[in-house]
Design brief:
Length: about 80
């Protein structure tokens, strides 16, 4: 089981956090998926159907996209 985003987000490089904010909801590059995994997160599909991998690419779960959007808007997102 992966850690909540508020635990692994600070472990990402600033460049990766900036990329995730700028392209929130878009396909996640393989190198970013690897960095998220190293930081303790996951983008794989869980039993609730969040996060997904398609032939076209990998996407973050909706709750992670919402959390990143809150951060991008200068809000304090609720704990996940």
């Amino acid at each position: 089981m992966s850690a909540p985003i508020e635990h692994w987000w600070p472990r990402l490089s600033q460049e990766t956090r900036d990329l995730l904010i700028a392209s929130n909801g878009d396909q996640v590059p393989a190198s970013v998926v690897a960095e998220i995994t190293r930081a303790g997160g996951s983008v794989s599909t869980d039993d609730r159907g969040s996060g997904h991998h398609t032939p076209e690419g990998t996407y973050l779960p909706d709750e992670v996209v919402d959390w990143i959007e809150a951060v991008a808007n200068g809000e304090t997102p609720p704990p996940s």
